[in-house]
TrEMBL record, chain B:
Name of the protein described by the UniProt record: TATA box-binding protein-associated factor RNA polymerase I subunit A
Positions in coiled-coil regions: none
Name of a matching Pfam family: TAF1_subA
One GO BP: transcription by RNA polymerase I
Cross-referenced InterPro entries: SL1/TIF-IB_Component, TAF1A
Amino acid sequence: MDLEEAKEFKERCTQCAAVSWGLTDEGKYYCTSCHNVTERSKEVVNTEAIPNTKIQAINRGLKRKQKLEKGWDWYVCEGFQHILCQQADALQTLGVGPELKNEVLHNFWKRYLQKSKQAYCKNPVYTTGRKTAVLEDNPSHSDCDSAPELLSDFSCPSFVESGAESQPDGHARKPFSIIKAPQSEMASICSGSLDGVEYSLRKEKGIVKMSMPRTLAFCYLSLLWQRETVTLSDLLRFVEEEYIPYIHAFQQFPEEMKLYGRDKGIFAIESWPNYEDIYKKVIEVATFLDLPRFPDITEDCYLHPNILCMKYLMEVNLPDEMRDLTCQVVKVTGIGEVGFLTFDPVAKKTETVKYDVQAVAVIIVVLKLLFLLDDNLEWSLSSIAEKYNEDNKEDKPWFDFRKWYQVMKKAIDEKKQKWEEARAKYIWKSEKPLYHSAIDKPVVHKRREMVVNLQKQFSALVDSTPAVEKKSPSSFQFNWTEEDSDRTCFHGHSLQGVLKKKGQSLMTKNSLYWLSTQKFCKSYCKHVTTYEESNFSLSYRFVLNLFSFLLRIKTSFLHEEVSLIEKRLFKKKYNNKTKKKSSKSRKVRRH
Amino acid sequence: MSDFSEELVRPTTEDEQGETCVLSGTGMCFPWLQKHIETVGKTLVATGGKREKDFAQTTSACLSFIQEALLKHQWQQAAEYMHSYLQILEDSDSNKRQGAPEIIWRLGSEILYYHPKSSLETFNTFADRMKNIGVMNYLKISLQHALYLLHHGLLEDANRNLSQAETWRYGEKSSSKEVLINLIQAYKGLLQYYTWSKKKMELSQLDEDDYAYNTASQNMLNHSWKTSINLCALIQIPGVWDPFVKSYVEMLEFYGDQDGAREVLTNYAYDEKFPSNPNAHIYLYGFLKRERAPREKLISVLKLSIEKNMILHRKKEEHHKLGLEVLFGVLDFAGCTKNITAWKYLAKYLRQTLMGSHLAWVQEEWNSRKNWWPRFHFSYFWAKSDWKDDKTLACEKALVAGILLGKGCRYFRYVKKQDHQVLQKKIKQMKKSVKKYSIVNPGL
């Protein structure tokens, strides 16, 4: 009851109007004349700035005994193994043969563990001297020395029986009996896995560290090895559509595999995979694993440009007759040859064919051959076709580029809108919150609870009508049928309007062509071209946008591929480097 | 608290370094390349070429979907997107996380205010939750929450809310907080004044000799003290506080504190720091008249008041300028978009102002609004829905749209096209006015 301290409070008492205040034990003001206690309390005078509450909280956190969750002992590579397993299972439900998981992916993974010296070898490389000593004390591991024969060893129970669900057997497990790094005792740096902290700090030359995007590189390599009918863009789209576990994959870990601290940075990611990035990682992983030449991509393989071109022609509603032309381009450019198509990480280290992008680029080149796409010729050809179709209603209709543009523009805009909406609604955060450290934990949990409560409130306002049922996964995103009157199907339309007879063969009426890229860098950078949108015709931009949306790639990336095909197609022009416009007219043979 | 530790622990992954290589690997130095990277670069942040996470990208897309839904009054969709947007409270970027509660409060309260399925309880729960996310918004949300309750006639709940906010303490008193606390107290005072004046009414109906009279007057007395405490702090701060000042003075007068009342009013009218306010002089004059002050004094106050008012309304036209300002301001608020009176007057004032060739005044108001009003008021969507709901409103709005945006604007075109027998004359007039006064291409 300090009257001195209460002097600064000068307001009248609400009961008796006197100004005579004292302080109660709780620090509240009370009136000394009528003993009325106010709701006001004396302000705590801070000498420091506001953030001191933060410091207090951190102090409290440090004082408090570390309360980290205890679960199974597990290693980062086991986590990845579990995720790869889930992904392989998902691929299997999508219709991929069981060999992919049991043989191919399994062997790739074993090879990875061996190459990165995490298992199947004598001296796991990343452990410190002390840890290797632990290993050498244990002679029972000599049987692990022999490297697994690639694609011959089918029996690794820990992998075939769905990864880490079965407690890892001695095979993969023991070489890791590492004592946790001393830093992990600090409250701020910790991890649920045994080696999470170390793993995130590891930076060794020549070692490809496992990461979430690299799990997809492994999946794609296995698909490619099996010559499955899944392209890289399909794979990534399935990931985004959640047919293949990726963003939330770590949530499927068994309850006892606790995940926090540094594990968060390793397993929890907040981006969808990106084509260029995964493509690079595919090559990187294949090179690191020192994989031999992959099985041949021959003309009957799905990944062969002739077949893929047909697929994409159907997808974007272009006439089947264009197939002859795409085959022709494939032949002239030589991109259909086995040697060119087959992936051989050792021989050509820096490149493999982007099958899907390349096929689409071929189609674009053919469209340019036929219609020039200079915002002029394609429209006048369309007018001719339109007139012909009006006059000859019984005949097979001529392909009308303008009509096709209208139909496709509408379809793609709708699709894009839906795609953007779905992305905006995507729920990234897991139900079980991930925290960085023990200090962090209560805050993160509280925040999660708050979000869940708020979400409940808003979902109560949303109509309970269930969202449109998720459609089954398909490598086709569009479906064009003859019946639908609103969405004309152009598959059966003819190209007569744009081709002309010359002797035995057919030629394109259009004899002009413009090159997407005038010059290629000669320097070592291998950079092909930069795509500045405004420099190109509107219809070319439309076609590029259409296809790059289908493959979910950047338009510049596709433009680059188009330029590469053109480089092969017009080799001479590039060598001469004199003419800007090629006036090459090409002969098209008819079957 | 967590941001601190996150900064410490943030791992640099290999991927990030990989990205840097990609950028430097282009090996080109076209002058436009940097710009190109920046435009491509919603995905690429300039510092080290680190890619923005898709999480950040989708949440910001989500935000624009919510805003669009709100613009179109699609509360259902807005609620749907809101469900996803809440994730931003868990963003690992502490800056974004800290800015989020205010955005969520603003959007969320708007949705809950209008959504047909929303109720008082929903709003209350939401407000209480939002108050306690962080500490930055407690006072602001409390005040707005109280105003919401007042709007629904729940005076007691509002009062309780304000009392809670009043006693809330966190950290040091900052100036922005002080203003908020004063406002909260003043609103509390206003509520108390309301009860007080109700009691006064009751009292006036009672007989002075009645026993009940004494208790009632005692009651009143208590209330007045509380109120004066609450009100006097706010009216010291420069500003326009008409309702607060009026009620405060009324109470002071009632209890015979004439000196106090005079001081307050004089201060309110003459203090240079206060914005010039004709009402302040009227209040003072009224008070002095009641007090039967000497004639000379009354006249001097009146003179000054008139002088001030003269300055304010020096010209009739300038009056229009103020009118325009107010009308534009009123129509900035989502709650007033369908206020036909406001639109009618805006159309009238616009015409008159332009007739008086004060194009600059219109442009002054319009410039800050021209990038959002077209979507906010004059979209095709609104043209259709306004025409369906209220044809007269649509006509007034179309006239304004035509003047501000020219006859090519979609709203104007839509209304112009409609065939309506009764309104035919009006539409014809509208077309004429637009042709004559549209600020777009004034040369034509």
